[in-house]
Input
Amino acid sequence: MRALARSGSPAVAELVAFACGSTTHNTAALLRGGRRETRTYPAGVFLYGGHGRRILFDTGYAPQPWRTGWRGALYRRLLPPRIGPGQPIGEQLDPATVTHVVLSHLHPDHIGGMRYFPHATFVLAAGAARTLRQPRLRDGVLHGLIPSWFDPAEAIIADEFSPGPFGLSTMDVFDDEDFMLVDLPGHSHGHLGALVSGRLLLAGDASWGRDFLGDEARIRAVPRFISYDYDELQRTAELLLRAEANGVTLLFSHDEHPTGVNLL
Ligand SMILES: [Zn+2]
Output
């Protein structure tokens, strides 16, 4: 439990990162010409506190066992999850203090901690809500990880984006101009980011890591196939690079981020 885990909201906005488990993948299997090295990808989660809200952006990996059948077994072969004691998000903060949970998308390393937040209001993209209703194998949704009490009809569905700062499509879903959802299509059907205080962009899985951004043309066939829309993924990468050139800091879900400090 850290500063942000206290109840009540801070006078000044805060953004704190957590690593909720990790996976590994060989860079050569991801990118043509990539290094033959096994890289560790933390399952990043962010907690924003401000304007009377405590908003969790993604929920990391779930503790084992998953009970997700052969689809789960396939996923674990491709991206072996590691999550030890103390790493699930529900063990790193007091879940009762979280008011909202934004799901960038529905892959297992982003929804595993949903179970801890039955009282929170969930926020997801319209495309993600559609995927929930009619998932295909390549959507990578493991229904066994989604709590039975979760009802998308009670969630806030992000479906109306308009031109925002830095050429991004944004939705000021909380009407505070401080935590704005950003439409970052490509990686999955409905993939959300969030622009925090106008200068930090939670970019989810728009790239596997900052150092891969702009290298989308080198992505190999299998990871390319798993991407929902590869052309959109490339356009999103260009937008992110432009935002960064304008002074925005990009925080991807699977890069290493300092924990226990206010990133704002
Ligand atoms: Zn993903």
